[in-house]
Amino acid sequence: MLLSLSILAAASGCSSYADRLRDVRTEFHSGNLAAAKKFVDKELPKKRRAKEVDVLKLERAMIELSSGKPAVAERTLREVRDRFDFLEQKALAEGAASYLTDDTHRAYAGEDYEKVLIRAFLALSNLMHDGGDANAYALQVNDKQRQIIESAGSDSKKNPKLAYKQVALGAYVSGMLREATHRDYDDAQRSIQLVANWEPRFTAAKQDLERVTNGRHSAPGNGVLYVFTLVGRGPYKEERYEEPTQAAMLIVDHILSAIGKHTVTPTFAPVKVPVVVVPPNRVQSVAVSIDGKPAGLTETITDIGELATQQYAAIFPHVLARTVVRRSIKKGSLYAAKEFGQVENPLGELAIDAVGVAWEATENADTRCWGLLPNKIQVRRIELPAGTHQLSLQPASASGQPLGGAQRTEIRIVDGSNAYVLASFPSTTLVGKLLVNQDARPGLISDESIDGAGRNRAPHISPADLPEPPQEPAP
């Protein structure tokens, strides 16, 4: 009884992560990066936010990247990557305690798609300031996906993760950088084949395969520009009432109360679960122009909204089961308290039931998530003559119609080399800075595979070492 009251006191009066995320998303998507950063920096030191530190750092990394600080963003992302890897080791005590409260009292180890996308954004961040470790990070994307799927077993009936859609960005970046060496075309071909398998709607993969198969990075005197864009407002979590489950719990209450010696705490509080939401987006791609001439639209290499929705739907039965088990444990605990205390007075039973109702009412759905992700990561490859060019980017609708104003910058193309641009368009206005890297090193795996803390920083993995995925049917 005292335990229940202490838990009730600790859990009451807390706003959800979704409530706090709403403010930072509004500031970020409107381009007010200073206000978004101020909000995150204010929340990070709070002791009561200790379970949210890692996910808040993910939000900060997106703000840092958009602010033109890719090296800082990379450092932040590495911290969270290593922390999530550590948290994959199950904390049994913490897990058991969460059944007496809710999942927000557990350390957040990230959704599966977030663990993979951390490595994808590590590759993009490194590419935009240095490039020396971008290929290693890209290979980590594929390796992490394999680990996640294999960790749940090989039985298709028991492992919903076997149906996960794969993130193709890592394979694309790896193929792009291997091609830039002008010698590793076999590795580049294997990587681009993975892209074609995992993202069949990415039509540029066919041209990329033909080019690397023929062993030609670019024509003599030409270089290549890669325009990466972060398009649309991405997925986030919000709280929802699970009505069918609540009705089922009510039926169980009536049955147990009818056949048991004591009453069972009635189910008045709604059963709350987190759900992934993808907001509607006007911007569907970005129109690219070079020297005043149209050069095509950026094309989706990773649909994050689709990825998050599909992967979360696969594990949602497990999330719902935890919620039902938690309710059952709470009801069972209070029933045991009545039995142990030999409570036979109706007023005594009513008092315990009142505590139980209040206890269940303190439950919150775990809406923690990486809320500043874009809806889509897109890319456009353009071969250009060596020299200086004027680049223009303009958000566009699904039909390719321009939306909002154009963003312009000057780029320098080097014969036989790659140049990279990264821009964020969650809506019709560019958020932050248009990042340009014309001096990234070629796609070689860094010899520095272990960082100063002894953690695996950028493992040496060849695309040939990765399993070939099954062919996916065209949509």
Task: Kindly list the characteristics that best describe this protein.
disordered C terminus, 11 strands, five-stranded mixed β-sheet, alpha+beta, single chain, Serine Threonine Protein Phosphatase 5, Tetratricopeptide repeat
Structure in words:
- The chain has 14 helices and 11 strands.
- By secondary structure, it is α+β, with helices and mostly antiparallel strands.
- The radius of gyration is 25 Å and the shape is globular.
- A hairpin with a 2-residue loop joins strand 4 (285-290) and strand 5.
- It has a single domain, classed as Tetratricopeptide repeat domain (Serine Threonine Protein Phosphatase 5, Tetratricopeptide repeat), CATH 1.25.40.
- Strands 6-7-1-10-11 form a 5-stranded mixed sheet. The protein has a 4-stranded antiparallel sheet with strand order 5-4-8-9, with no helix packed on it. Strands 2-3 form a two-stranded antiparallel sheet.
